[in-house]
Amino acid sequence: MEVSVGEAAVRLGVSGRRVRERIASGDLRARRIGRAWVVDEAQLGRSPRVGRPMSRRVAWAFLDLLAGGVGEGVSQPEQSRLRKKRSLLLEASDPASLLRSWLPARAEVRRYSAADADLPALREDARIALSGVSDMRSGMAAAGVVEGYVGDDEVDNLVADFLLSERGEPNVILHVLQEDRPVAAPVPLPLLLADLADHDGPRERAAVARLLRDLP
Question: Is 49 part of a structural domain of the chain?
Answer without folding.
Answer: no
